[in-house]
Design a protein that fits this description.
Layout (H helix, E strand, L loop, with lengths): L2 E7 L12 E6 L5 H9 L17 E6 L3 E5 L10 H14 L5 E9 L6 H11 L4 E6 L6 H17 L4 E6 L8 H9 L10
Parallel strand pairs: 2-4, 2-5, 5-6, 6-7
Antiparallel strand pairs: 1-3, 3-4
Amino acid sequence: MESRYITSALKPEQLPVYELPEIAFVGRSNSGKSTLLNKILGRNKLARSGSTPGQTQMINFFGLGEDLIFADLPGYGFSAINKNVAEQWEPLVEGYMQRPNICEFLFLIDIRREMGDMDWFLVDLLSRNLGVYVLLTKSDKLSRQEQQKRVWSLTAAMKARGIDVKKMLPISSLKQDGIKELREDIFAHIPPKEPKV
């Protein structure tokens, strides 16, 4: 299926309207959102990524054929971006979360990092709408045993806070770990085609 950039939104009123199922990528500015999105879409530079945190300052929309919409939300948790720009993001993201066609919130966090206040606030907000699909990125930095310990501890911490965790998956864009499983879960949202008469 062909993947393509569609549009970007800096303000809530700029959010495009779709009936297609939509997958949202949410996480810190250095969690690997854009890199993972490129992997899923099979493109190297469709979603912008780089060594400087916060390159995604708007919600960027991408299409996969005529079947799915992907939204790359602004990263958070860094101080390099102008404060006025950061203040615009809150109403944008809050407005975005009300979209009725969102079928999956993918919450990304570096597997080596502890959850901060902003992480907890956001994952709680997301889980009020849908169960959260947690992606523990950069999993190649830890052994399999360490990855499993991280899954157990974070799952327990989220359940203790009443957060609905749909799934938690260690993933590595570098080593391709978890990519196939994530793709299968995402593509399961594609509605079945009606048979041609």
